[in-house]
Amino acid sequence: MSLQQKDAAIQKLARDAVRLIRPGNVVGLGSGSTAAIIVREMASLDFCSSLYCIPTSLQIKMEAEKSGLRFADESMIPEIDVVFDGADQIDAALNMIKGGGGALLREKILISSAKKVVIAADESKFVRSFSRSVPIEVHPMARTVVARELVRAGARPSLRVLDKGYPFVTENGNVILDTTFESISDPKKMELELKGIAGVMEVGLFTRTPDICYKAKNDGTFEVISNSH
Question: What pTM did the predictor assign?
Answer without folding.
Answer: 0.93
